[in-house]
UDP-N-acetylmuramoyl-L-alanyl-D-glutamate--2, 6-diaminopimelate ligase (Candidatus Gallilactobacillus intestinavium), 520 residues
Amino acid sequence: MNKLTLSAINVLTILREHNLLIKTLNFKKTDNYETIAYNSKEDLHSGLFFCKGDNFKKEYLKAAIDNGCIGYVSEKEYSVNESVSGIIVKSVSKAMALLSAAFYNYPQNDLYIIATTGTKGKTTTTYFLHSILDNFSHKKTAMFSTIDRVLGPNKNQRFKSDLTTPESLDLYHDMYKAVSFGMHYLVMEVSSQAYKRNRVFGLKYDLGIFLNIFPDHIGENEHPNYEDYLHCKMQLLINSKKCLINAQTNNFKEIYLAACGTHQKQDIYLFSSKDFMDQSAYKIDFTYQNQVDNLAGASFLLNDNRNGSISRLFDNERYSILLPGNYNEENATAAIIATKLLSVDFDIISESIKKTTIPGRFEFLNTKNHGSIFIDYAHNYIAVKSVLSFLKQQKKYKNSKVIIVVGSTGNKGVSRREGFGKAINEEADVAYLTSDDPGFEDPLDIAKEIDSFINHDKVEVHIELNRQKAIKLAIENSHVGDLVVLAAKGEDPYQKINGVNVPYPTDMVVAKNVISKLEE
């Protein structure tokens, strides 16, 4: 690929086109930026530096200049070396998104992009999509998910993720790398924060999938209220060429109208369970109908309900998945429809999804003398409720004691704390409240807040802030027939504490070690 560069003139043109430019300082039209960054510690030889963040300090810009920066983009003027150009804008985050796309030669134009949003199910749906399209394209499908970032076909082109949707500069860098590695497709999760913080500003998708929405991510550093959360989620549809919407989502009418405001009806597809379609006032295009649902997985029928001259995608096709639960049938249905729209045939889809597993999602460990251990990333009320209620519906666990180990993140998702308390009241018998990425908050305060929403007449509560010890206690104190659910952490290999990613073995590794010692 050609050497990356961005001319100063091109920078001004882009910013003016989007009404972002306020003024320039010491501007040099002949500058060519050979690097871009928002981290002042990076090599910025002939570089353009973005003064990003609410807590940005002038010292960061000075460090960037020492590392080779010849221009900066900022919402504020800084008095620095006159040889350095200042570009003052209305929004650094928007400017960074647009200029990153230009610097990396608009890699999105070389990829067919399917983007998924929803309060729950984004990661599972994205893994289903990747499994199908990677087989279809002969390993030419990239994936940006909460867990993994897959940029190419080789192991050294696969990385662990820090954010569900990364900063725009990192996003376009990774798209550029994916294109350079020969990728033709990209499947990605898009969080509400990605729109709130302009990480995907200006990015268009070939297909946008809207799974569901429930109250979440509402707090001091996130969305001020549910309306703002919903507004940000709906931006995915507005920025997609075609839309696929779960008709059973909350706020469906607003979501559907948002899609209708920017699309022709033929570019909007609706899906739901068959039972829901039978009661719906809307014309549902595709339905799924459960056939089997147990701990071994699920199977279901898909049907195309469209009539007339429209070419139908499928007719009573049966699919099986390893992940149980109606909510996973919903996720698989979205992935199947999305890939059917790309003319992927039944055999490829069927073989792909029935082998798909998701790290940290509904993983199981058996014990000889203690309970059955389930590990799941469920990290809000509806997800925890769904997992626990599904397990309790299974004949094997109908009379089981339910023990849950859970914590809540610090400085974000504050509303989850009440949600965890509610789910525990409704579905659990014993709760071990522990730490889970406490950030800059005191984990004891977080645990006490969750505890304040729990009915102690119904649930036995223990607070143990050391997560490994909490898991050990939960397993040790369980008996044969009990259910032990390790929730919310999944495959996350870190605890985020006071701004530092502290290595953590993952819940699965901790549980295996505990069981191994108990059964020596």
Observations:
- The longest strand covers residues 286-294.
- The mean pLDDT is 94.
- Residues 122-136 form the longest helix (15 residues).
